[in-house]
Amino acid sequence: MIATQRVTDSLIIVAILLAVWQGLNLMVGDTALPGPAATLAYLAHLVPSARFAENALATLAAFTYALVIAYGLGLAIGVWLGAHHLSGAVGEPLLVALYSIPKITLYPVILLIFGLGISGKVAFGALHGILPVALLTMSAIRNIPPVYLKVARTLHLSKWQTIFAVFFPATLPEVVAGLRIGFTVTLLGVLLAEMFASKRGLGFLIINAMSLAQSEEMLTVAIMLFVFAVLANSLLLWMEHRLHRRN
Amino acid sequence: MSRVGVIRLIVVIAAIGLLELACRLGFIDYRTIIPPSEMTTVLVRLLASGELNSDIARTFGVVVIAVAISIVLGFALGLLIHAVPRVRRALDPLLATYYAVPIFIFYPVMVAIFGLSIIPIVLIGIAAAAVAMIIATLNGLDRVPRVLTKVARVHRMGPLDTALRLKLPAAAPHLFTGVKLAVSYGFIAVIASEFILAPAGLGRAIADAYSDFNNRKMYALILLLLVFATCMNMALHAWDLRWSARRGVRPQ
What we know:
The complex is a heterodimer of chains A (247) and B (252).
Chain A: H1 2-28, H2 36-46, H3 50-83, H4 85-99, H5 107-114, H6 118-142, H7 146-154, H8 159-196, H9 202-211, H10 215-246
Helix pairs in contact in A: 2-10, 3-4, 3-6, 3-8, 3-9, 4-6, 5-6, 6-8, 8-9, 8-10, 9-10
Chain B: H1 3-24, H2 36-49, H3 53-83, H4 85-98, H5 107-114, H6 118-142, H7 146-154, H8 159-170, H9 172-196, H10 202-211, H11 215-247
């Protein structure tokens, strides 16, 4: 009963959003904002095309490298700051400060260092992702209840046994939360990089479509990215909830 | 200052010193990064010349407008959504995934609709900031003690009175977390919009300096924004801690 009500409510929200979209379309006209039907028709035509595949692959490649670097460095920094008390106390406010600055201002610096190719995009994406992963990993390690470690000591667990049987499962839910936020901001970083200076990728496709006044294309790419982000986030959120329940 | 604070200061000074040294000794190409001391002198000169005044006024004006609208709108929507549990349940998954979407990809769409003025930038600023305020309002209202709503009923307070005189102060620490996030998200969104595409503003000035190969101006502007953002965030954080301490909750 509640489940069906939920589904109906979600459908109502989708319907309202579509109606608002259609209403805006009627207000501003087809050239500024194409309606849902026109956009869907364009989507069916653009998504199977080679041009879309090529640019989507360029974005995916840059995003994957950036994510690997962000996760690797973020986890390493997080474990270090979480395990070593003094480093954590010194480093945390610095990381928080770095996390909340508008990193887009640093993009020209990244471009001057890494050049205009894929490496600049990867570096800029990773720059976004490292901080939330590091911050949440650090806090996960600090939040382990001391009694867990006492139990490990009482049971005479070895160092590795403690890491695998206590540290790993106790920190996993919060670490996964960090990985989820890292995923989101890394994607944002890569797209911003493509929008500002790139000749390939979905971010470039959006900006290019804007300068050519191709609203359908702009909207289609934005919606594909929207769907990708929502699906990936839902998957990671589901994992997070499951891990929380298990604990 | 505590020992940790001293070490932190030494780390920051050492990092800036190393950068200065690496630039001066030629380990870092002058065309890549200029020495921090030079960034500072160029910035001071630019600020004194008044050349940046209109860009600074424009950017901060847009941020203030976007954040002010976001805070009021976010609080009002939060109150409304909280009042109708069914809407709340339906919107919860949407709110949980909202910040997973790079909202920024819709900036070109806004420009196509509203033209290249401050309107698309303000709208992107609101899109980035208002939802944080809605989420914080919902969190805050969830934690308003039941007894307070009973008090309101005993005193026959109207819905508006209850919202402003009772729920607002009771939820204040959480609301302040929302304000803090709204300021920070709004600022980032405005700068990023200007950076990608705008007629004027600090973000645009950095992008222009970059494409003109005017590194000295570019680094001075970057320094200005970073220093400003850091000071603003530190002030908000300190304020948040004080608010939270008064209400006996932990800051988020």
